[in-house]
Write a structure and sequence with these properties.
The chain has 363 residues and is mostly helical. It has eight helices and no strands. It folds into two domains: 237 residues, no CATH class; 82 residues.
């Protein structure tokens, strides 16, 4: 079942279960209450089991997300270190290229200076030598020297240009590597951020599930305690009824039961007859039979071993259910209404209630 569906089911069970956690006096019938309590307890325990399984799954996913985030952070550290190294390489390459360019320019300046010195040393006599045919050998010698200087300068310049090209290529490559490292670092940083968000969401889900599990466990514990208390009260009342039945049987065996006093003709069904007993002329034969066996028709009849009271000897919880705040009323009409409602809800008809009473000596 999906977590959302389980959560909705959990809320439904919690709302239903909360209606059971009321004082025993508000239960309409302890046996029916016990059955409902057991049913709700089973539902809560099933949802609790599912919630615990979900919590374990979320905890496992949270640990996995934590591991993935930690690994991604390690990769991010490595990427950042490589980016710093690439940046340093780019800076060094740029500096090297700038140095080679400066050296090339210095060489050009030196060659220019040397050429000017070769052609312009001395005064006008030296210039005359360059154009005097009588001194042709010296002119050739100077030309050879200039060629040699120019050739050496060209070789040096060519080497420097080659180094400059290499430096430029190295700088471009270093910039490319730096850009690639930057992109890789940003990608890993986004991955880390995403994993941290996933981790946070799973941590929140784990926290909420743990809180729900705690609430469910509390509800289940309360229902178990309520179930145990209901079972104890049911055993206690059944024992009391058994003692009452045994006492009635003993009295019946000891002496014949006196016939019931006939009711006055045409009295009001909600009034009282002689002796403080209720007028039962308006009730059915089965209702009269039950009332006479339970209370003898007295609206003040009380059971010393339980909370049973009145015409139908309804327990306190049932009187509160059917009479509300007037549960202690001794009015014959109100007690008769509550008695009939109890019989209708539990047995359907007074005849069925009478048959149950005759089989069990209580109803």
């Amino acid at each position: 079942m999906p977590v959302r569906a389980r959560t909705l089911a959990l809320l439904a069970v919690l709302l239903t279960a909360s209606s059971l956690l009321v004082p025993p006096a508000a239960a309409d019938d302890r046996k029916a209450n016990l059955s409902r309590t057991r049913d709700q307890l089973g539902k809560i325990e099933a949802v609790l089991h599912d919630a615990r399984a979900d919590s374990a799954a979320v905890a496992s996913a949270l640990a996995e997300a934590d591991g993935a985030a930690s690994s991604a952070r390690d990769r991010l550290d490595v990427a950042r270190a490589r980016l710093a190294a690439a940046h340093d390489s780019s800076v060094r390459a740029a500096r090297f290229a700038a140095g080679v360019a400066a050296d090339l320019q210095a060489l050009r300046d030196d060659l220019a200076r040397r050429a000017r010195s070769a052609y312009m040393t001395g005064g006008s006599a030296d210039l005359a030598v360059l154009i005097d045919p009588a001194h042709l050998p010296e002119l050739l010698d100077r030309a050879t020297t200039l060629d040699y200087i120019a050739e050496g300068g060209d070789d040096t310049q060519n080497r420097l240009r080659g180094v400059q090209r290499q430096a430029a290529e190295l700088h471009d490559r270093a910039l490319q590597v730096e850009q690639e490292r930057q992109a890789a670092s940003e990608e890993v940083a986004r991955e880390v951020a995403g994993l941290e968000r996933v981790k946070a969401v799973r941590a929140q889900a784990k926290q909420e599930l743990d809180a729900k599990i705690a609430r469910l466990a509390g509800q289940a514990a309360a229902l178990r305690a309520r179930s145990g208390e209901l079972r104890r009260l049911i055993r206690q009342e059944e024992a009391a009824r058994a003692r009452q039945a045994a006492e009635r049987a003993r009295r019946a065996a000891a002496q014949p039961q006196a016939p019931a006093q006939p009711a006055p003709a045409q009295p009001q069904p909600v009034g009282r007859a002689a002796g403080g007993r209720c007028d039962l002329s308006g009730v059915s034969a089965a209702e009269r039979w039950i009332i006479m066996h339970e209370s003898g028709g007295s609206p003040t009849a009380a059971n010393p071993t339980s909370t049973a009271f009145g015409l139908g000897q309804l327990l306190l919880g049932n009187r509160i259910l059917y009479l509300g705040a007037d549960y202690a009323s001794t009015d014959c009409g109100k007690q008769l209404v509550a008695f009939r409602a109890y019989v209708r809800d539990r047995y359907g008809t007074a005849e069925a209630a009478q048959a149950f009473w005759q089989a069990h000596n209580w109803y």
